[in-house]
């Protein structure tokens, strides 16, 4: 009841402020509600991200020893074209990686370039031309190992056999991994993954060593980097996020680096000064309170001023933790006056002890009592 009464009183006195505050209150609460609903229902609107996470674990050879955490997710859906895109930020063993996914609605009518389950091996090479180059290299490596086997010694034969086994195992693991990825994509329900790329931030290492090594390392981590794009499924150029990271890098020349170091030093120096100023205000807080309390509650002073209300105009002087030498300018009725006072205390004491206080009022100097 008391709250309603105060709100109604405020409404009658300040209608404009009331309507403005109500509007801001509704806007902020509605935006918070929308954000909560957006993030809460993100997985239901983008169900394909669970398949994408499983594919990522396959691609990274994820094991129980590894640590994979989802830090951030954002995306949108194009209802007219039945397409969706999503960007997920992960922390994989303390390394940040981006997983960018394009998906297509299964109910959308397929065109001639769409993924065909019956010809999945052919479509894999059509959508990933770089795999053809890799297969050619593997084939050439096999031919070389076969030819060298006729002219090599026993040791070379053993090495060639090891290389052949390694190439065979790599190809077999790669084929198994591709097959598992295709199975995950093929079993998609409402949305089917069309393209996935993995993006990592590459730090440009700086070999120079100096006294400011940590500062140089800080600038390298945040201001000298480029992006590495790895194709997991599909042609990376067709991914909606490809050009966001392609050939994007952040570098600064030496002049800009030195200027930013100076700015960083100035920032830390000003922060130290600000912290010092905060401690000064904290130490002077109790002494200022003592001064105000003395002026407002001293009976001797009020009797001299005729019990008129006192308005403090300004306070100046030295106000430290255990010492004060203050000058107070005040106004009582239509006349102004000055109070000069000094007080001190020990480190153990909670309250100040007044040494002396003088009043300059109406062209007279009066010694004030300590009470």
Walk me through the structure.
The structure is a single chain. With 371 residues, the chain is of the alpha+beta class. It has three domains: 37 residues, no CATH class; 224 residues, no CATH class; 84 residues, Roll (Nuclear Transport Factor 2, Chain: A). The chain is built from eleven helices and eleven strands. The protein has a six-stranded antiparallel β-sheet with strand order 1-2-3-4-5-6. β9 and β10 form a beta hairpin. The radius of gyration is 38 Å and the shape is elongated.
Descriptive tags:
elongated, alpha+beta, 11 helices, Transmembrane protein, single chain, 371 residues, six-stranded antiparallel beta sheet, Nuclear Transport Factor 2, Chain: A, five-stranded antiparallel beta sheet, 3 domains
Topology order in helix (H) and strand (E) letters: HHHHEEEHHHEHEHEHHEEEEE
Number of domains: 3
Supply Rg: 38 Å
Q: Pairing-aware structural class of the strands and helices?
A: alpha+beta
Biggest sheet details: 6 strands, antiparallel
**Beta-strand residue fraction:** 25-35%
Unreliable stretches (pLDDT < 50, length at least 5) are: 108-121
- State the end-to-end CA separation: 44 Å
- Share of helical residues: 40-55%
> Which outline best applies?
elongated
């Amino acid at each position: 009841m008391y709250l309603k009464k105060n709100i109604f009183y405020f409404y009658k006195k300040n209608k404009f402020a009331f309507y403005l505050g109500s509007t801001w209150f509704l806007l902020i609460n509605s935006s918070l509600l929308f954000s909560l609903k957006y993030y809460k229902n993100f997985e239901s609107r983008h169900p394909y991200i669970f398949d994408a996470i499983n594919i990522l674990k396959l691609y990274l050879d994820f094991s129980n020893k590894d640590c994979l955490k989802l830090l951030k997710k954002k995306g949108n859906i194009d209802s007219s074209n039945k397409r969706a895109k999503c960007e997920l930020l992960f922390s994989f063993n303390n390394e940040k990686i981006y997983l960018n996914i394009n998906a297509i609605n299964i109910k959308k009518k397929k065109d001639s370039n769409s993924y065909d389950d019956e010809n999945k091996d052919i479509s894999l090479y059509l959508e990933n031309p770089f795999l053809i180059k890799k297969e050619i290299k593997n084939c050439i490596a096999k031919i070389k190992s076969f030819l060298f086997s006729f002219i090599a010694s026993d040791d070379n034969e053993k090495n060639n056999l090891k290389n052949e086994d390694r190439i065979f195992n790599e190809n077999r693991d790669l084929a198994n991994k591709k097959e598992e990825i295709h199975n995950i994509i093929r079993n998609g329900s409402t949305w089917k993954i069309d393209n996935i790329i993995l993006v990592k931030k590459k730090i440009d290492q700086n070999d120079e060593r100096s006294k400011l090594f940590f500062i140089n390392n800080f600038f390298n981590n945040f201001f000298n980097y480029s992006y590495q794009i790895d194709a997991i499924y599909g042609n990376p150029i067709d991914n909606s996020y490809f050009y966001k990271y392609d050939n994007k890098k952040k570098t600064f020349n030496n002049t800009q680096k030195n200027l930013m170091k100076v700015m960083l030093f100035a920032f830390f120096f000003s922060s130290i000064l600000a912290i010092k100023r905060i401690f000064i205000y904290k130490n002077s807080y109790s002494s200022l309170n003592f001064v105000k309390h003395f002026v407002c509650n001293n009976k001797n002073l009020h009797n001299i001023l005729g019990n008129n209300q006192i308005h403090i105009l300004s306070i100046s002087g030295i106000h430290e933790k255990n010492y004060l030498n203050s000058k107070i300018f005040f106004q009582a009725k239509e006349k102004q006056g000055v109070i000069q006072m000094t007080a001190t205390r020990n480190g153990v004491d909670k309250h100040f002890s007044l040494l002396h206080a003088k009043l300059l009022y109406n062209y007279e100097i009066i010694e004030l009592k300590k009470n």
